[in-house]
Amino acid sequence: MTRDLSTRILHADRAAGIEHGATHKPLHIATGYGYERAEDLVSVFQGDKSGYVYGRQGNPTTAALEAKVTLMEEAVGTVSFASGMAAIISTMVALLKKGDHVVASRFLFGNTASWFNTLSQMGCEVTLVDATEAKNVEAALRPETRMVFVETIANPRTQVADLAGIGKVCQARGIVYIVDNTLTTPQLFRPKSVGASLVIHSLSKGICGHGNALGGSVSDTGLFDWDQYVNLYPNYRKGPPTAWGLLQIRKKGLRDLGGTLSSEHGHRIAAGAETLGLRMERTNANALALARFLEQQPLVRKVHYPGLASHAQHARASELFSGFGGLLSFETVDGVSPVALLNELQLVIKSSHLGDNRTLALPAALTIFWEMGQEMRQSMDIAESLVRVSLGIEATQDLLDDFAQALAKLNK
Ligand SMILES: *Cc1c(COP(=O)(O)O)cnc(C)c1O
């Protein structure tokens, strides 16, 4: 019997047995771990025995969160990090070498795009393609291509990558396929179902949900054959091959780079994850209602939301996802400044961040996509007037009323 995802998340901690019968995993704050016998310390260090050695490589609290993410993604294992960016960068530094080639979607979270720019200065070539069609990814592949990276729903323009098509291409060519599942969350979509090798999350967003902790993760779906991966160090060929990639990420990525998730934040994220299902239901309904409302407004030129029939990948999103997410973006008509519009909102918070219980909005081109310049924004289809809205769990009518009164003021 397969139980509902929320049910399984709620009872996940108890699967491993908890100190004193606590109903969820307590906060472990020790930096170091001591052993009665030196032989045990040696065994744990050498990987022959499971255990903890030093807090930079994790602790029982973050391990419990990792187990929860593994469960959510139906993966074979997970490594957690201090943020989504730490997860992305540590994974790539751990798996890539000079001269390698990476193909990525050109519709990306701004800091991920900035990281690819850095990576290309460090001896790895990066080709950015329109990943809404798998043939563009396929055409960019080279013999030295080691990985393909895409987001499920791109932040902020909501393009939906050809997730299944790219999965087939990567599988046929033996290339690591990394999917950033932040905007969909495992509640709506499991990248494993389209052949992803690794699944990335910014746990700071929908999985935490309360805007009170930063975290990131990478999970291995078990589908990639690490025995075939040319950059795998002999030291990490230990145990079943499905574990090799993640072991190298934990050592070369987490241990050496040190972007470790704190137990306090891990604990808050784990508590947030318990209500993921409930929150996604409300935020997705709010997003659809607001998208439909904005589509009717004369001051709004275009609304981008995968749940709208007008969205270019609406059919794909309907087929792959069990909901359309809590994020939308829209462009105002010429002469209507997104800044002026946002200033009229009384309830919605002018803020970056997304996947929060509160509804947040920002002028995307002027803030999170400012540093990259207009040319790059154009290549990512980000209009200068684009407003990004991350829907919270407020009552739908309160949100519609807020946008209605703001638009009415500008229409005067
Ligand atoms: C926010 C975000 C990230 C980065 O995560 P942080 O936790 O903020 O470092 C990566 N990918 C996507 C899609 C995001 O929205």
List the defining traits of the structure above:
single chain, 412 residues, alpha/beta, Aspartate Aminotransferase, domain 2, Aspartate Aminotransferase, domain 1, seven-stranded mixed sheet, five-stranded mixed sheet, 15 helices, binds pyridoxal-5'-phosphate, transferase, PyrdxlP-dep_Trfase
Describe, in short, the structure shown.
It contains 15 helices and 12 strands. With 412 residues, the protein is α/β, with parallel strands linked by helices.
Which residues form runs of ≥5 with pLDDT under 50? none
Helix content: 25-40%
Give the C-alpha Rg: 22 Å
Give the number of domains: 2
Beta-sheet strand percentage? 5-15%
SSE arrangement, N to C: HHHEHEHEHEHEHEEHHHEHEHEEHEH
Shape: globular
CATH topology value of the largest domain: Aspartate Aminotransferase, domain 2
Cofactor: pyridoxal 5'-phosphate
Family: Belongs to the trans-sulfuration enzymes family.
Modified residues (N6-(pyridoxal phosphate)lysine): 205
Organism: Ramlibacter agri
List the topology elements:
Elements: H1 5-11, H2 38-45, H3 60-73, E1 77-81, H4 84-95, E2 101-105, H5 110-121, E3 125-129, H6 134-140, E4 145-151, H7 163-173, E5 176-180, H8 185-188, E6 198-202, E7 216-220, H9 244-257, H10 263-273, H11 276-295, E8 300-304, H12 314-320, E9 327-332, H13 338-344, E10 349-350, E11 360-363, H14 374-379, E12 386-390, H15 396-410
Parallel strand pairs: 2-3, 2-4, 4-5, 5-6, 10-11
Antiparallel strand pairs: 1-7, 6-7, 8-9, 9-12, 11-12
The structure holds pyridoxal-5'-phosphate.
Pyridoxal-5'-phosphate binds at residues 83-85, 109, 112, 151, 155, 180, 182-183, 202, 204-205, 214, 216, 354.
